[in-house]
């Protein structure tokens, strides 16, 4: 656990060891932030997991256990589409249920582009386009923007899509239902009964053995179990989301407690969701800690 201890923090390890420190950097990724829609939760009264009727993509390292079984994958992003391909290749009977009207695919990178294309759509670590290029080259300029503008950038800059290299393993191979949403989900003996709806599609029923939710993650400080409750409560949040509000050095409202990775994306932009953002974050945090050390 991480608790406040005077002017610093006390970190207690599972073996009982205690470490007193002036600073803690939370860089734990998305492990505890998996999001499951409420409408699906009744499928796993004992909790979601590979052996239950419902699981999240973050809970899997091997999908071969579903060979010969019927699986519905809910979602339309990379984790949904790649999981569907792996399930199909492992021998599962899989369908993908996508809420959007179509599946979006990334474009194959062009290493040699004419200067006119490079000018119109400059390259960045996250793809091409002026918005991505700007937030990657100067992520520090995102933080001063109004919270509403930052959240719009966070939600819209990189929406759900599949990698270009995955397309041939899914398109025309795995059944994909677009403009489709789950209206009802219930257990029916050993099966899962899904009632599906969508724009102009009417209602349909789907029987499967397992539902794999590729429904993303919710950035929520309260979902970090290793932070003591008083610490979580003291962390100020970005308006409109439960991610921490951060200083220009990634420090939260709790002195000495820093956050990086996806939890920092609502403050510094979409690059922080990816490995591409680690250099910027590491530099800002280390410079801050060095200055603090010099003052003492």
Pick out its properties.
296 residues; alpha/beta; 2 domains; 15 strands; 23% helix
Question: Could you describe the 3D structure shown?
Answer:
This protein is an alpha/beta fold and 296 residues long. It folds into 2 domains: 21-32 and 219-295, no CATH class; 38-104 and 161-213, FAD/NAD(P)-binding domain. The chain has 8 helices and 15 strands. It has helices spanning 78-89, 115-120, 130-137, 147-156, 167-170, 229-234, 265-268, 278-295; strands at 2-5, 8-12, 18-21, 24-26, 54-56, 70-74, 93-97, 123-124, 127-128, 176-177, 181-188, 191-197, 204-208, 210-213, 257-259. The strands form 5 sheets. It has a 5-stranded parallel beta sheet, with helices on one face. The chain has a 3-stranded antiparallel beta sheet with strand order 1-2-3, with no helix packed on it. Strand 8 and strand 9 form a beta hairpin. The longest helix is centred in the C-terminal third of the chain and has 18 residues, at 278-295. The two termini are 26 Å apart. 32% of the residues are buried.
């Amino acid at each position: 656990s991480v608790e406040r201890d005077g002017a610093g923090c006390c970190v207690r390890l599972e073996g009982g060891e205690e470490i007193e420190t002036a600073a803690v950097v939370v860089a734990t990724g998305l492990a505890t932030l998996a999001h499951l829609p409420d409408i699906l939760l009744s499928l796993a009264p004992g909790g979601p997991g590979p052996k239950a009727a419902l699981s999240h993509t973050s809970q899997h390292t091997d999908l071969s256990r579903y060979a010969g079984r019927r699986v519905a994958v809910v979602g339309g992003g990379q984790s949904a589409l790649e999981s569907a391909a792996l399930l199909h290749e492992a021998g599962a009977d899989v369908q993908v249920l996508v809420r959007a009207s179509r599946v979006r695919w990334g474009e194959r990178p062009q290493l040699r582009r004419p200067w006119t294309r490079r000018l119109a759509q400059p390259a960045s670590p996250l793809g091409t386009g002026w918005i991505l290029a700007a937030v990657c080259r100067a992520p520090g300029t995102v933080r001063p923007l109004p919270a509403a503008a930052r959240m719009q950038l966070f939600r819209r800059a990189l929406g759900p899509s599949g990698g270009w290299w995955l397309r041939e393993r899914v398109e025309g191979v795995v059944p994909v239902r677009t403009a489709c949403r789950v209206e009802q989900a219930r257990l029916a003996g050993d099966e899962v009964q899904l009632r599906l709806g969508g724009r102009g599609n009417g209602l349909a029923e789907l029987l499967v053995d397992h539902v794999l939710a590729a429904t993303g993650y919710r950035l929520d400080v309260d979902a970090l179990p290793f932070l003591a409750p008083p610490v979580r409560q003291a962390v100020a949040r970005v308006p409109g989301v439960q991610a921490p509000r951060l200083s220009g050095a990634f420090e939260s409202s709790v002195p000495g407690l820093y956050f990086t990775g996806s939890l920092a994306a609502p403050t510094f932009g979409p690059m922080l969701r990816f490995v591409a953002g680690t250099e910027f974050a590491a530099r800002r945090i280390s410079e801050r800690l060095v200055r603090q050390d010099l003052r003492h």
